[in-house]
Specification:
Blueprint lengths: L5 E5 L3 H13 L3 E5 L2 H11 L3 E4 L8 H9 L6 E5 L4 H9 L4 E4 L4 H16 L11 E4 L2 E4 L4 E4 L2 E2 L4 H12 L5 E2 H9 L7 H15 L9 E4 L3 E4 L4
Parallel strand pairs: 1-2, 1-3, 3-4, 4-5
Antiparallel strand pairs: 6-7, 7-8, 8-9, 10-12, 11-12
Helix pairs in contact: 6-8
The chain binds calcium ion (CA).
The site of calcium ion has 5 residues, from loops.
């Protein structure tokens, strides 16, 4: 018997719910529906979904409350699907631990790709201390996590330690936007606040070393006002 991945859709708009159900079932997912925040809570704890698609505007609460409380005990993938398009809303959801943020309206293939990425992340191996091991490769870009080196077309890119840390952090969450604040906190620690400048300088240097044309990057993309995203591995 085929074991299907189970997706919980948290959405109060019945038309959107039906759309999700049709599309996801046609793509061999098991679909659970919750129309309110409290329904979502009980389904998340009782049904153990593989992925949660979370609307933010729910009748009984803000979806971010659900995200916050799930993150207290679980790293299950949560994709926020929202009509809120402000950068501030995206940053808040990502910083609270959302795996991704999809803005309504969105295309079916985009949705399915984001779901596949989120599921794959929960199944990629990290070692016991949570560090990535092995190799990441996409086109000519190779991250060797064991040697702490980055190669482009077989040539060592000579990244500094901090540049390497930034690239490997993005690689660990490939395909997902990592917010500026998260990167700064991970690389420079919690006391380096509100200074994107040092990150921008580092990113400019990284791009100069790894991109053919730093103005049109093919490996690390900027999500303006939100953060950076590295390409998916091959
Ligand atoms: Ca809604």
């Amino acid at each position: 018997m085929e074991i299907k991945d189970r997706i919980l859709v948290v959405e109060d708009d019945r038309r959107i719910c039906n759309f999700f159900k049709t599309v996801l079932e046609a793509n061999h997912y098991d679909v659970l529906l919750a129309h309110t925040g409290s329904e979502a809570y009980s389904m998340i704890t009782s049904q153990c979904p593989d992925v949660v698609l979370l609307d933010l505007g729910l009748p009984d609460m803000d979806g971010l409350h659900i995200l916050k409380s799930v993150r207290e005990w679980s790293s299950m993938p949560v994709l926020v699907v929202s009509a809120r398009t402000h950068e501030k809303d995206k940053v808040e959801a990502l910083d609270l631990g959302a795996d991704d943020y999809i803005t309504k309206p969105f295309g079916t293939s985009e949705l399915l790709a984001r779901i596949r990425t989120a599921i794959r992340h929960t199944r990629t191996g990290l070692n016991q201390s949570g560090q990535q091991t092995g190799l990441f490769s996409s086109g000519g870009l190779l991250i060797d996590y064991d040697k702490h080196r980055v190669f482009v077309d077989g040539v060592d890119a000579n990244l500094t330690q901090n540049e390497y840390k930034i690239v490997s952090l993005l690689g660990k969450y490939a395909g997902k936007v990592i917010t500026y604040d998260t990167i700064i906190r991970e690389i420079w620690g919690p006391n380096m606040k509100n200074d994107n400048r040092i990150l921008r300088v580092n990113m400019a240097n990284i791009r100069r070393k790894i991109e053919k044309n730093p103005a049109q990057p093919q490996y690390i993309f900027t999500e303006v006002g939100v953060g950076y995203r590295i390409v998916e591995p091959d």
